Amino acid sequence: MARFIKRNWMWLVLTATIAVAGPLLARSSGETARQRSLDTLTEIMDLVQKQSPEPPAPRQLTHATIQGMLHTLDPHSNYMDESEFRLLREEQKGSFFGIGAIIQQHDQGIAIISPMKGGPAERLGVRSGDIIKEIDGTSTDGMTSNAALQKLRGEKNTIVELAVQRAGIAEYLRFSIPRAEVPTNSVYYSFMLNPTTGFILIKDFGETTADEFERAVATLKKQGMKQLILDLRSNGGGVLDAAIGICRQLLGPDQLIVSQKGRDGREENQTRTSKGAQLDPFPLVILINRGSASASEIVTGAVQDHDRGLVVGQTSWGKGLVQSVLTISRSRGLALTTARYYTPSGRSIQRDYTHGLDDYYNPEDEKDAKPQGPAFKTDLGRTVYGGGGINPDYPMPTLRFNEFMVDLRFRHQAFFRFAVHEKERFGIKPGQHADEVVMARFRAWALEQKLTLSDKDWDANLTAMQEQISIEMQNVAFGIEAGFKIQCEKDPVILKALEVLPEAEALLQKKLLLQRRAPATVATLR
Q1: Which CATH architecture has domain 187-320+338-395?
Q2: Which CATH architecture has domain 95-183?
Q3: 294 is catalytic
């Protein structure tokens, strides 16, 4: 999502930009007014450069000016510099060149959470829990994960030099790692939750997403899948065509997927499944939360409106604007809002952004998120709402860590660090949970690390700590998918999805009966 810059000196630029945005976009006001606005902008930029105690670089000032202009239009129009545009293209393409490791900012440096199986880092001996202290001779002290990521990525076959600190070894370990192509698969997890229920998590929508999803479904069917849980939680969207490709695999013949209208509301473009499409009759439940946006909402809205499956979780973000990505000078990009999209029932799910970007980027708590817009009807007559994201059929509360757990997990990375220690000292078995013996070792280790663990906090949070340690032990020993499978066992949203799958089956049977009785229902915009 677009970033809103709030440094004081930039407010002058933003104010000037507001003045110039109208003449730039509306030539009918005349060339004289346009030139006068440009002159004003130039004069203010000149004053900022001369009078500000810390004058910004011209490039920085220009970037802020452009962003300010775009944010007078909507929250999602956005200018991307060279690095931002390159990152976007890598994410959309589905691969980049790097060392093949998941990293995280750590108080001791940049931690290796998990080397990717078969990647350059794993082949050369980098392990989970290693702390990157230097990248190409530059210290990682104070370095963010994003900054480290930029340094680790580069051209194919070029070498990145790492100095790594490993538990139990005094000297740094040094690795010369050739960068290689690292796939950034959109289908992050795909496995069987039980003998008949498949689970697929899509983390974003890129150029390869629809093909990845098709392969994942085929593989799960060979493993006995009869029903599917599709996890789109915290999936912020991506390429529109990828969402359309997923819908074409889930919906029946000649069904409307999404409609787009230009800003003036006149031009309308409808995208449908083919008339010869066949509905794959497996029950479906989709998981969403406040982080599910854009392409995720297109898929969820189409499934919900056509009664193809049920939706469980929290109300989605509410992004109903379509951006066209325009290339500037080959290396930079402009994501410009060019249309609004509507779900098959005709609803716009765009959340209101007229009260300021702070309110937009920090929406109300999910427990207070209620339908805000007009009511619409699904194919089978269920009521759904527009105007504020996709409302789930089964709302679930958002679970949050208390301050004690936040302190241990995020500030001290205690569970991760202990899991590394446990692996090195005692070994970890596949599927192993943290039992009483492990928890006793954790408490002793935490005291050695001078972490505060009162008896009251220990008793109140014992179950939560056991779950987190169990997850981290599998993460560091067998990779993050192994840890995620442990997490799924207690995830209340996944448990609810399993509970309502019989209802999803009944909904599907009604849908199939409707199709047999009459031609495919065509949803019309209202």
Answers
A1: Alpha-Beta Complex (3.90)
A2: Roll (2.30)
A3: yes
